[in-house]
Specification:
About 50% of the residues lie in helices and about 20% in strands. It is of the alpha+beta class. A six-stranded antiparallel beta sheet has the order 6-5-4-9-8-7, sandwiched between helices. Strands 1-3-2 form a three-stranded antiparallel beta sheet. A hairpin with a 2-residue loop joins strand 8 and strand 9. It starts with a helix and ends with a helix.
């Protein structure tokens, strides 16, 4: 399977996850921007493998085979098996959503999201991606990189401004990263979404750089930012010690 086919396969399943209904071949081809002939071959391959089945009027829908595979994979994730109890405790202690993430080339990817129990909260899902320069996790991971490595992953200046508060220059970002590194935690205040505040700190496990983030609405988050930071750093120190003792 080449890179284009792999991308189209993922696009196809994401399309069904968004549409939540059977789709005809022409609808699928149009939505994933693929030639009808290529899309037909892809669907027939997935149909033979048991991942898609045909319905009346030449429409298609995924079977539960992908769900079964994904569930089995998720239940045996060695990293989340280690971290999940601590992430849930962190959510309960702070009352805010907790996100575990790591770098994926020019962005960060959320590996797990434990949502706050408040009605108004940060909501996300595993696999979602965010930009490095205007996310708390991104800043935490940039903060542990040498400057030369940042050059490789940051976009050209000016950086995309997601809100009026987004830092768009390398100088401003480097200054903030230096200040944040000295205190041990990193933050965004309405830089990706105006109403959203978040803090994050790096988590080093066996040479792998991860980051844990707390996120919530600014009006609730701001008065407790320092207390949240202290709780977050204690949790990360305990996790790193737990991993070192294994």
């Amino acid at each position: 399977m080449d890179i284009k086919t792999a991308g189209r396969t993922l696009d196809l399943f994401e399309l069904f996850a968004n549409q939540l209904k059977p789709l005809r071949l022409s609808e699928i081809a149009d939505a994933i921007d693929a030639p009808v002939s290529s899309c037909h071959q892809l669907i027939k391959t997935l149909e033979r493998r048991g991942y898609i089945y045909g319905l009346r009027l030449k429409s298609y829908y995924p079977t539960k085979r992908m769900l079964r595979n994904a569930t089995a994979i998720g239940q045996h994730d060695p990293l989340l098996g280690l971290l999940m109890p601590a992430l849930e405790t962190l959510r309960d202690e702070t009352g805010e959503s907790v996100v575990l993430g790591r770098q994926s080339q020019h962005q960060i990817v959320m590996l797990e999201v434990i949502e706050s129990l408040h009605n108004v909260r940060f909501s996300g899902h595993p696999g979602a991606v965010r930009e490095l320069h205007c996310s708390a996790i991104g800043k935490a991971l940039l903060g542990v990189m040498p400057p030369a490595e940042r050059d490789r992953w940051l976009p050209d200046e000016p950086y995309p401004a997601r809100t009026e508060r987004t830092l768009t220059s390398r100088a401003a970002l480097d200054d903030e990263l230096a200040e944040s590194r000295a205190r041990g935690w990193y933050e965004v205040r309405g830089e990706s979404v105006l109403e959203l505040d978040a803090i994050a700190a790096p988590l080093m496990l066996g040479g792998t750089a991860l980051a844990i983030c707390l996120a919530g609405p600014g009006t609730r988050f701001a008065p407790r930012r320092q207390a949240h930071a202290e709780t977050l750093l204690r949790s990360i120190a305990a996790l790193e010690q737990q991993f070192a003792d294994r």
